[in-house]
Design a protein that fits this description.
Layout (H helix, E strand, L loop, with lengths): L1 E5 L3 H10 L5 E6 L13 E4 L9 H11 L5 E4 L6 H7 L4 E2 L3 H8 L1 H10 L7 E4 L2 H11 L3 E5 L9 E4 L2 H10 L6 E5 L5 E9 L5 E3 L3 E6 L2 E7 L6 H16 L5 E10 L2 E8 L9 H4 L4 H9 L12 E8 L5 H4 L4 E5 L9 E9 L2 H16 L1
Helix pairs in contact: 1-10, 2-3, 3-4, 4-5
Bound molecules: adenosine-5'-diphosphate and magnesium ion.
């Protein structure tokens, strides 16, 4: 079966690496500026036609469908994909997840409306479109806040933390205007966890145990799963959240939910309609990786077990050159993305497995220290 992937970054790479043993074949659509290095050798790489901006969605969809070798299913590896193209592609083949789910996650405002709509809790927030609205929102919420543009934000990009009035003054002095943004109260979380869920086309679902995550400067640094010290109350909240989200969205594939834990309460931060960096540990730590399960779901295959034996962690390689010789240990596994190194760029990760959670945490910390200090 041919799978078309919109995007050709590391998530596309790891999907293809997981799909080849299943007999799946891949083609990738590169957007302007994408080099395609990550997917070199893994399938047909196609660039958007030069005149794509002047083409109708229907004409572009037809072009893309044929260029991607008439795939049975098209999926995405990132959020910033033209939804009208995805909608138009549905006239040619299955598109999973549904473009409507991608649309919800593309805009933080829509995403938060959806999260509120399913009855889940979030940090207090206000959507703003002008500098005046920004000032009024901060007045209402009180410092500290974080301002995030509604679109085109990922890995901490297009976000501003403001702790005191002086930070707002600086922001106002250095910006003439503001695009649609969400002003969020900064919460004092005890930790961040994420949920990696999968739903098949026949409605069956599976979930991996919650993952604990550590971010630096808005970018994921490390994960550990299963997250430790989840009491019954938090476990119930996690289960309830997964049900509420999957029960209210027509979804096929892997979906990630990023959360904060504040005073034992689960607050949703954001959703990602795709395989997720905080699920990379599943490559070594779970019976079926998130990549394989995404493919199983979208290809109409039976979902794989999400069982975990022992504990698994992941350390992101951000803007650092590490080779297999350095990274590999008996219980450490190296995943490089074939990318050139630039500051903070995700160029690979190391997965570590252990039968003891404390020993794993120590090894994660040691690995982080060796790489970043
Ligand atoms: N309201 C908040 N309170 C405290 N920390 C936050 C808040 N929002 C974001 N952060 C921190 O910034 C990180 C990145 O923010 P996020 O909204 O997930 O953006 P991105 O789309 O870039 O991942 C989060 O993982 C968290 O560590
Ligand atoms: Mg995030």
């Amino acid at each position: 079966m041919q799978i078309g992937i919109i995007g050709c970054g590391q998530l596309a790479r790891m999907l293809a690496l997981a799909g080849w043993p299943l007999g799946l074949k891949f083609s990738f659509l590169a957007e302007p500026g994408d080099t395609g290095d990550c997917v070199l050798g893994l399938g047909n790489l196609v660039s958007m036609p030069d005149d794509f901006e002047t083409m109708s969605a229907a004409a572009l969809a037809e072009w893309v469908y044929f260029a991607l070798d008439k795939p049975s299913v098209i999926t995405v590896e990132k959020e910033s994909v033209p939804v009208d193209l995805l909608e138009a592609l549905k006239t040619h083949c299955a598109v999973y997840p549904d473009p409507k789910a991608v649309r919800i996650c593309q805009n933080r405002g829509c995403e938060k409306e959806f999260i509120e709509g399913v009855g889940a809790t979030m940090a207090p927030k206000i959507i703003v479109n002008t500098m005046e609205e920004l000032e009024a929102a901060i007045e209402q919420l009180g410092f500290p806040v974080i301002v995030k543009t509604c679109e085109e934000g990922y890995d901490g990009l297009n976000q501003w933390k403001m702790d005191v009035a002086g930070d707002l003054v600086k922001f106002l002095a250095s910006h003439d205007s503001i695009v649609e943004s969400v002003v969020e109260k900064r919460v004092n979380f005890s930790r961040e966890i994420s949920l990696i869920l999968v739903r098949a086309a026949d409605g069956r679902t599976a979930s991996y145990p919650a993952t604990q995550n550590w971010h630096e400067g808005g970018i994921l640094r490390a994960s550990l799963a299963p997250a430790q010290n989840i009491d019954n109350d938090l476990a119930k909240q996690i289960e309830d959240l997964a049900e509420r989200v999957l029960g209210n969205i027509d979804y096929v594939g892997v979906l990630a939910i990023e959360c904060f834990v504040v005073d034992g309460k689960l607050l949703v931060n954001e959703l990602a309609p795709r395989v997720h960096n905080s699920g990379h540990w599943t490559q070594q730590g779970a019976a079926t990786s998130q990549f394989e399960n995404h493919l199983r779901a979208i290809a109409g295959l039976p979902l794989g077990s999400t069982d975990v034996h022992g504990f698994a962690g992941m350390v992101n390689l951000l803007g650092v050159e590490i080779d297999a010789q350095t990274a590999l240990k008996p219980n450490a596994f190296f995943h490089t993305y074939n990318k050139s190194v630039r500051p903070n760029r995700k160029v690979g990760h190391i997965n570590i497995v252990h039968n003891d959670a404390n020993s794993l945490k120590l090894q994660l910390d040691k690995t982080l220290a060796a790489i970043y200090s």
